[in-house]
Amino acid sequence: MKLLKLSLGLLAIVIMISSCSYDNKETLYPQDPGCDTINVSYAEDIQTIFDNNCTMCHSGATPPGGFSLEDYASAVVTAKSGRLMGAIKHQSGYLAMPQGANKLDDCSINKIEAWIKLSYPDN
To answer: Which end of the chain is more exposed for a tag (fewer CB within 10 A), N or C?
Structure first.
């Protein structure tokens, strides 16, 4: 009887240990393989995202919110302010953008975030 209890206890420990594993974020939530965030640049990626989703409002002499996304220099100023990521990620305390539309797709958000982390490459 004692041997059976010891065997069952040992078996339970082995099962518990073997069920533990290290899962990293990339394995659990793989990024879209078609979404290149390594070689992102304003000219190749970001400008298109802004043109398709933002510049219809955020351009011209007096854009809403006081910031423009119509050219590289304006986009960098807006990104450096921190308001851009808060708005497109729909974070608390920021006005969700694009206003009155769906949130940008994950790939677009990831590209903008990578562009910022890479210090705003132009080309």
So the answer is: N
